[in-house]
Amino acid sequence: HPPIYSKQYPASSKDQEIKFQETQKLLERGQIEESTSPWSSPIVLVKKKDKTMRFCIDYRRLNAITIKDAFPLPRIDEIFDQLSDATYYTKFDFKSGYFQVPLSKEDRPKTAFSTRDNHYQFTVLPQGITNGPATFQRVINHILGPTRWKYALAYIDDVIIYSKTFEEHLSHLNEICQILKEARFRLNPEKCEIARTQTDYLGHRIQNGEIRPSPTNIHGLLNTRLPQTADEACKFVKAAEYYRKFIPNFSQIAEPLRKFVPTTRTQKKKGQKTIITLTSEEIKAFEQLKKFLTTDLVLRLPNNRFPFKVQTDASDEGIGAVLLQIYPEGDRPIAYLSKKFTQAQRKWSPMEQECYAFICALDKWHNYLSGITFIWETDHKALTQLNKKAQINKRCERWRLKILEYDFKVKYIPGSINLMPDYLSRSPVEDAEEDPDETTHLISKSTQTDISNVNNHSSIVAAVETRAMKLRNKTLNDISNTKLPSDSLNTSIEENRTTPFSIEELIQAQQNDDYSKNILNNIKKYKNYMIKDNLLMRRLNPPVPYVPQGDFRKTILQIYHDTAANGAHFGRDKTIHKIKQRYFWPSMYKDINNYIKSCIPCAQFNPRRQKNPGTLRPIKPPEGVWQLVSMDFHGPITPTSQRGNKYIICLTDVLSKFVITKAVRDNTAQTAIRFLKEDIISKFGTPRCILTDNGTHFTSTLMNELIKQIGSTHLYSTPYHPQTNGQVERYNSTMDAKIAALSNLRKTDWDDQLSFVTFNYNTSIHSSTKQIPFEMMYGRSPVLPFDHQDTNVTLSYDSEHVKKLQQFLSKLNEQAKLNIIKNQQRYKQRYDINRSNPSYNIGDLVLVKTLNIRYKFDIRYEGPFRIIQTITPKTFIVQHVKKSTLYRQVTTDVLLPIFERIY
Question: What is the DSSP-derived secondary structure letter of residue 102?
Fold first, then answer.
């Protein structure tokens, strides 16, 4: 297909500036690059509720011509079959999953977009691409490899590990974590669930081998109220009748409710309703039908063999939706959704309300609908043109961009058929909530911290805690005399809560604050606020007091983050949750985020889960075989073998990837020297350079004397940087899995299997060189034990043999070097995603990583230090702020910047 070029939508100068800022962020992260592509898709800026803009690319025209990737998603019924035999479950959640998948160079131009300043294209998988789910599924399948269907499964970005025993689960977790670490896939730890005996997965609850619909899937119908009007009762019967072929004796069960008739047109015009009170027999019929509709007689586990369908509807009260599958015998429901409207949502246009119902359904059932083709049925005809109109109102435009990644067809159906969603929308059960896409997104500022904050930190915390304790009794008395909700300013000693100031102090501060004074004087204009006992409150559930700017906010932040009783230095989300239940101010999310990011104790003690800074600098491959070898010990291995071996010593030729291994009893220098003499030099000759780590078994005087005698060069890998000696590290991880698979039940014969694993490794093609290590080492193809060989042996002299062999080996070496370089470039490209070379200046304040942590409670980062000299772009001299005689030479990968604090 010829390239598609879409003109940019008109934009104001302010919007152009936003586009520039967003593209700069993407450039810095390495997620986009400059482009000369003839393709172009338009940028869309969608205004959020906080008046900021969301940066999106409209890929509709590109998706329309894209050949759909037929890569299959796992069958959900087969997934549940596997999970039903397990007892322990762990769920992993990826952090910015799509952006962890690099985009091939030939496909990048198709993702291009333009600003007024430049033309760009993505280097990673962007959101909104139609084949995104299939691509991500393929990547995850490849990463999990042989663990899939054994103890790990992935449905797009939902990964689950399952085991029968806790010991097995720990082993499986370790294996999967190692696999993800090697693949450099990042997880979002806050959303991971570890070693649960009950879990919700793909909309179903799994426990003790039983798989049932998740309560959230049937909540929308199961908790509907009893019909209060004849019209509601009639609609419920008609909705249930849609599935009557799956409900035994439907007519007999529903008979008590059939006497109710719908509201007539005349009654509707006059706003009249027939109010009813159900008898015990009618209530029994209502509850019995609901039970059938929410059990497996009607409700089914999802099955990928049958197409999915979503039905939605909206009324004045709320929204309703049903997820179904189209079986040969009729539509089977999978899940129900019912939600009330907020007061603001009730004022939306019908199109916005109907569209919102679909958006909520996508959010709720994303796991079922992502990556497949499904049908959306609606009784609102205008929505059938949702993907065809150029631009619509801002709210629907934002929702439309959200559904770009889904593949569906819109189908109009009359309201007389759309019965169950209609009933659910008129009897909503879930509480109303604001549109989740309109919540404020936090953007943190990364600068230096004022040194006064560092010096006074401990004293500030101590002072705040002391003041809180003094005010406790006074505050309890003050609050007991007010009518504030219990969750706002209530203080309970049993719950270890403190209230940092009295009600009178807060009222006085509100009256002196310009923002709150304006609201107090014009309270009728501000629907989100109320006055209760002279105190300005934010209308939440329950209402909470508004906190004026200044010391009040600072004190609250200190109390609910720094103090042992109320904060304990927990992270952003937990701190936000505590504070928002008790107080409100407009910038509280931003302020809390800044306060925690600039917290020195948190920075010093919290584990860092982000990638190490700095891009990769690959090591150039050696010129030939046996020019550079790497050596290492692997172990101790549990259990000890029957021969008493606890370690494996391993030597790898860096170019050919040929491996030599030996099971040994210890990891001493004498053992390493014996291995070099007896198993390496006497059989293969002397290598030119030997690369080892800095272990004492390799740095000993005896080892250095031996290497000096044989004329080799001894190279050491960088301390605390095992990637330098990555050849042996990678083989070790491969070797462990293979040996374990071949060993006996007790794994005590692992050293018997070592030679077989090593031989098969050496006689198999290597992924980096695309060559067989054995061929590169010996100049001939390996003969395997079961290979058919010619019984006739020809004894002849080939005068050109040596020359041919040299040419053959030279060709293999050159091909191997080229393939290694290509592989390094691909790996570097992937490694460098979301990494940048950090920039530090003289005078910046930093913390320095503690490299020798012995105990769990040891400090992880020391400081603060100030940068006083730049040696290279990545190497600095730093000076301790308090201990002025303490200097260090450090590199960027051990530095942690300190952020400026607002309060």
Answer: B
The identity of residue 401, as a single letter, is L
Q: 205 and 220 share a domain?
A: no
pLDDT band (50, 70, 90) for residue 107: very high
Q: Is residue 747 situated within a structural domain?
A: yes
Q: What DSSP string runs through 70-92?
A: -PPPPPHHHHHHHHTT-SEEEEE
DSSP letter string over 634-698? E---SSPPTT---EEEEEEETTT--EEEEEES---HHHHHHHIIIIIIHHH---SEEEE-S-HHH
465 sits in which H/E element: helix 451-480
Which among 164-173, 391-400, 807-816 has the top mean pLDDT? 164-173
Boundaries of domain holding 181: 13-212
Q: Is 306 a domain residue?
A: yes
Residues with Cβ < 8 Å from 828, sequence gap 6 or more?
615, 616, 618
pTM: 0.40
Q: Tell me how many domains the chain contains.
A: 5
- Give the pLDDT band of residue 671 (cuts 50, 70, 90): very high
Percent of residues, the chain, with pLDDT higher than 90? 13
* 702 and 728 housed in the same domain: yes
Is the per-residue pLDDT at 470 higher than 50?
A: no
Q: Are residues 160 and 255 in the same domain?
A: no
| CATH code at position 896 | 2.30.30.140
Q: Which of 193, 212, 231 is the last residue of a domain?
A: 212
Predicted pLDDT of residue 729 = 53
Between β-strands 544-545 and 535-538, what pairing exists: parallel, antiparallel or unpaired?
antiparallel
Name the residue type at position 277: T
User: Alpha-carbon distance 737 to 146, whole Å?
Assistant: 11
